[in-house]
């Protein structure tokens, strides 16, 4: 598996395929996720959004997307992380997350926040973040909808950058 | 005092004056706040952002700005509420907040979230929200900076709209 930080035009379609394959995202979420890809393609390195794309034998199998939180000194939101279901269980997600954390730390940021749903569908997602060293710092009940709360995770990194 | 939901071009300067007068917002925050005003002026009623502007004798003395949270059924973020310090203590903030809540409920949304800093400077701000019926649902320590956490408030409204 290879992980790259450049985003290519062809990735848009590949990432849509990955996102749809997971079955986790509705049309609105899908559209937001792909907008960020388009924004990154249009703005390049100047974009607010950082990406890592995982490839296996030249085929896109997953990605992570994050960005600094405006108005904070060192906080980052991990917006999206998705892995092709056919490639799950092989450490792709963990490798993406660790590579993202290394890049975040390298940019001098140390607090990685991830938000996810409290619904049963997300039990494996939440278990994954806990396994990767994240802790639950807040739960907002009924945030998304009645019975569908928001769970907020945090991992504090040790910055490797010199300011 | 009058409260209106239309935003005028002249408000941009007046709201900048109010925001600066409070002494609570740095240049980055000011610029974000004014961008939302510009966005609202450009997009009009189609804007994602809702505003209420308070006037006293034709002079702008405060405002509130909020918007629905994407991907949620009924949650709203109250982004900004500011009152000219010369007019504080007269119930302008409370009137703005209650008018905003009435409009939010009228649009069928019921969960109003407000985020503020845990710093000592915001003790009066936090006391204001508690007085207005908000409760603290989460605290993220060191979110903005070391020693500067994020405090999240929530008020659950009773929707008045028929879907």
CATH class of chain A: Alpha Beta
- List unreliable stretches of 5+ residues of chain A: none
Give the second-level CATH assignment, the architecture of chain A.
3-Layer(aba) Sandwich
CATH topology of chain A: Aminopeptidase
By DSSP, the count of extended strands of chain A is: 7
Rg over CA atoms of chain A: 15 Å
The figure for the number of domains of chain A is 1
Structural class of chain A: alpha+beta
Described by its quaternary structure, the protein is homodimer
Strand order of the largest sheet of chain A: 1-2-3-4-5-7-6
Main sheet specs of chain A: 7 strands, mixed
Describe this structure as you would to a colleague.
Two copies of one chain form a homodimer. Chain A has 163 residues and is an alpha+beta fold. Chain A has one domain (2-156): Gcn5-related N-acetyltransferase (GNAT) (Aminopeptidase), CATH 3.40.630.30. Helix content of chain A is 33%, strand content 34%. Chain A is built from four helices and seven strands; from the N terminus they run βααβββαβαββ. The first copy, chain A, has helices at residues 11-22, 27-43, 92-106, 123-131, and strands spanning 2-4, 50-56, 59-68, 75-83, 111-117, 135-145, 148-156. In chain A, strands 1-2-3-4-5-7-6 form a seven-stranded mixed sheet, sandwiched between helices. In chain A, a hairpin with a 2-residue loop joins strand 6 (135-145) and strand 7. In chain A, helix 1 (11-22) packs antiparallel against helix 2 (27-43). The longest helix of chain A is centred in the N-terminal third of the chain and has 17 residues, at 27-43. Chain A is globular, with a radius of gyration of 15 Å. The relative contact order of chain A is 0.14. The interface between A and B is medium-sized, with 22 and 22 residues.
């Amino acid at each position: 598996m290879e992980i790259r930080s450049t985003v290519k035009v062809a990735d848009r379609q590949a990432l849509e395929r990955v996102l749809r394959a997971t079955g986790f995202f509705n049309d609105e979420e899908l559209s937001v996720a792909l907008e960020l890809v388009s924004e990154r393609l249009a703005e390049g390195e100047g974009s607010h959004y950082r990406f890592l794309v995982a490839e296996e034998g030249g085929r896109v199998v997953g990605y992570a997307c994050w960005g600094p939180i405006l108005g904070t000194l060192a906080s980052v939101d991990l917006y999206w992380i998705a892995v092709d279901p056919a490639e799950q269980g092989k450490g792709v997600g963990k490798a993406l997350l660790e590579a993202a954390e290394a890049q975040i730390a390298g940019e001098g940021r140390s607090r990685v926040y991830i938000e996810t749903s409290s619904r049963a569908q997300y039990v494996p997602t939440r278990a994954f973040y806990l396994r990767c060293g994240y802790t639950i710092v807040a739960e907002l009940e009924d945030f998304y909808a009645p019975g569908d709360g928001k769970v907020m995770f945090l991992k504090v990194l040790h910055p490797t950058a010199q300011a």
